[in-house]
Structure formats: C-alpha cells, structure tokens
Specification:
31% of the residues lie in helices and 23% in strands. It is α/β, with parallel strands linked by helices. It has a single domain, classed as FAD/NAD(P)-binding domain (3-Layer(bba) Sandwich), CATH 3.50.50.60. It is globular.
Length: 436
C-alpha cells in the first residue's frame, strides 16, 4: 500500500510533509483533482496525535473563526465512507457539553448566539432535559449544550483509510522517510531534501503537527507553537450510557465501535517545560493566564529530550525528525487513575468496566488556539497547515480541502483570513480577554 522510503520520486507538483489527518486530507483532495502529489511521513501514517485524539467530530464549542471550516468538514465526514469506499467509523450521534455553573451557561449561550447563522442545531438543555437525555449520568449540573448533528469517528481507522484512497487516486505516500528541509533556489521553494534524496517541487505544504515550529525554525521562519500532553484510555466493552460524545468538565468520553469508550480528563493537560516555553513566553502569556488551572507544569524526561534536541542542522546531516520517528509519550498513571475514578463516579452503570489500554499524545497549540492555514510570506512556494490546537481531527477533512485549494490557486471554500500566518507578526487579538 505505502511506497518504500528508498523509492522517492524525482519530482512532484506538490509535496506534503506529515502523515496525520491534515496532511493526508490535503493529499487526498489534491489527488482527487489529478494533481501529482507526494506525501512524506517520517514514521507511520497517523502515528502521533491523529490516532491518539478523542475522536470527537464537533461543531459546538468552536471559536467563531473555525465554524465555517468545521461545517464544511462535517459535510465531508457525512459522505466520506461512500466517497472512498472505506470505513472511518463516523456516526452522527451528537456531542454534549455539561454546565456546572452560571459561567458555563453564559459561555454556551454565547456559542449558540454566534452559531445561529451556520444552522448547526446547537441548543441549551435544562438540568431536567439533560437528565432525560442521559439518565445514567450522575452529578450536579445546571444544564448542557447539545448539538445532535455533531458526530464521532475512529481515529485509528480514519486517516489510514484516507491514505489508501489517496493512493487509489494516484497520489504517492511514502512513510519512514523524513524531510530534512526545503531546497531553496533564490529564496523560492525548488524541492524538499529528504533522508533519501531530493524531490523537486515548487509547492510544499508543511502539516507537521508538533514538529512544525522546529522545521520552520531551521529556515528562519518563526512559528509560535507549543506542545501539551493529553492522557487517554479505552475501556473494555461497556453498557451504552450515550452513543455520542460527552465533555463533563473533569471527564470526556466517546462511544467506540468496539463497544467501549475512549475516556480522558475533560480539562487537565500536561505541559513539559523546556526551551520553547521560554522562546514563546510572551506570545503564550494570555493563554497561560486563561488556562492556568488546567495545565500541569512538569519537568520531565520529555523536557530533557526537548533540551537536547538540535534547533539547527544542515540538510546533509541527520535531522531531529529521523531521531524520533514516532513521538510516543508515556501517559501519567495518576491522571489515568483520577480520570477512571471520575468515570465511575459520573456513570455508576459502568462500574464493571475495566481499562483495556492507555496512551498519551502531544497536541500542537498556537497562542490563539486556532490553526495556521497560509502561505509563508518571504518563502514563495512554502505553505503551512498546522497548529490545530486539539481541534484537528474533526476539522481535518475540511482543512485538507481548503489547504489543497489554497496551494493550487483556487478560491478557498471558506475565508482563510483568520488563519493567516502573518497574524502573529501583525499583533493578533487576545481571544482570552484582558491584556496581552
């Protein structure tokens, strides 16, 4: 199915770097237009966050800037299995966010208000309506935000299925082959330098997830980006308490096709202190202030690895991307135990389930928590589709489509102005309120 890494092509019209859902979706939509595209992945398809996320496909709770993109993406999700003739595990069973206080209610009301024009069907539920919808859920709730048109999909199935579809359309996907950098001629993209040689191209899309800032920095392109860790588990087969996905503050769960649940802590995430924390401190200060109760700062093995990772390398030398084929962080056991306790407390009907598997993933985040989908000024031919800040799986197919449109000179299906790379240099607004 996947090309061998030692058989790289001499040229391509477009090269995509990164085999997660963004990169693969971009390659798929390019191949659908019969555009010669090659995707390089240093490890395996969906080896990192694209197979480790919660599997929510949601419109609700999105930033206003992302709503047009997720509406388009959900339209694609609904028809993708029929289109590619493969299984991605998509089910439109709704997403539910619970409200514990007046602040949650106010935030949900604001979302319903700004989402009206997109007709996503989100509505506020009273405590009684929530209890009727999910009778097995215990706790003190003021109500909930519910979007019946939202869905869920299986991360470990979806991206490989899209990769197979891309190849059937003539696109090439090469795994186990790191791109060390851009081959630049007179300041323009002329190709990519891989560990197995050069592929000539005039158009490159970097969809590198957590590796994007490091790649950019080696070419003097400043991309503010940090990584946070989420710890996740899947349960043994379990009774159905809700067929969709639920976020309940200290608990997030999604029904799985195997009859169990994917479960994570609803808000707690780990931040590994390292050089990037200092490098991007001023850019991320508003976000840190806003999320200070949710982030657990850790000086860890990951911190040490980040400290010794080279920031500069020549393109004829081994790159950091070859040193770490797949980033595979270890989940924190105490977080898993706390999350499992939250699950049993909130859903006593699941008291007989066990933990089948645990894992962790690193999420690429930007200072304003929305992605970059943009050409890079100053490096003609270089484009970014990265920084999806934990929202990338659900929004992935739509993001892939607009990225493909961007790089081929089409008018994008949605306005990409909010996602421009220049916003960091121009002084982006603070989405969290207050100074900064």
């Amino acid at each position: 199915m996947i090309d061998r890494a030692d058989r790289i092509p001499e040229s391509a019209e477009v090269v995509v770097i990164g085999g997660g859902i963004i990169g693969v979706s971009t390659a798929y939509f390019l191949a659908r237009r019969n555009i010669p595209v090659v995707l390089f992945e240093k490890g395996r398809i969906a080896g990192e966050q694209s197979s480790r996320n919660w599997g929510f496909v949601r419109q609700q709770g999105r930033a206003p800037e992302e709503l047009p993109l997720i509406v388009e993406s959900l339209r694609i999700w609904r028809g993708i299995e029929a289109e590619i003739g493969d299984h991605v595990g998509f089910h439109q069973n709704g997403v539910l966010y619970t409200a514990r206080d007046d602040g949650d209610i106010a935030a949900f009301e604001a979302f319903v208000d700004h989402a009206k024009e997109f007709q996503v069907g989100s509505k506020l539920l009273s405590a009684g309506e929530l209890s009727a919808l999910v009778p097995d859920m215990k706790g003190t709730f003021r109500g909930a935000l519910h979007t019946p048109t939202d869905g869920r999909a299986e991360p470990r199935l979806a991206v490989p299925a899209l990769a197979r579809a891309t190849e059937r359309l003539g696109g090439r996907i090469i795994t186990g082959c790191a791109v060390r950098g851009l081959d630049l001629k007179r300041g323009r993209v002329a190709g990519v330098v891989t560990e197995h040689g050069i592929t000539a191209t005039s158009t490159v899309v970097l969809a590198g997830g957590i590796w994007s800032s490091l790649f950019c920095g080696n070419h003097d392109v400043s991309l503010p980006q940090l990584r946070i860790q989420n710890n996740v588990m899947r349960t043994t087969p379990a009774p159905s308490v809700f067929e969709g996905a639920i976020w309940a503050d200290d608990l997030a769960l999604r029904r799985r096709e195997d009859g169990g649940y994917t479960v994570a802590h609803g808000y707690q995430a780990d931040f590994h202190l390292g050089p990037d924390a200092l490098r991007w401190m001023s850019d991320f200060m508003p976000a840190w202030r806003h999320e200070k109760n949710a982030l657990k700062f850790r000086l860890s093995r990951q911190s040490l690895r980040d400290m010794v990772t080279r920031r500069r390398w020549t393109l004829d030398d081994t790159s950091p991307f070859e040193a770490t084929r797949v980033m595979n962080p270890k989940p924190y056991r105490n977080v898993i135990i706390e999350t499992f306790s939250n699950l049993l407390q909130t859903f006593p009907a699941l008291s007989d389930v066990g933990i089948e598997e645990t894992w962790a993933g690193l999420i690429d985040v930007t200072p304003d928590a929305i992605p970059v989908i943009s050409a890079v000024d100053g490096v003609p031919g270089f484009h970014l589709s990265t920084g999806y800040s934990g929202h990338g799986f659900g929004i992935g197919p739509g993001a892939g489509r607009v990225t493909a449109e961007l790089v081929t000179g089409q008018t994008p299906s949605v306005d990409l102005t909010p996602f421009r790379f220049r916003r960091f240099a121009d002084g982006m607004p603070n989405p969290f309120g207050g100074a900064g």
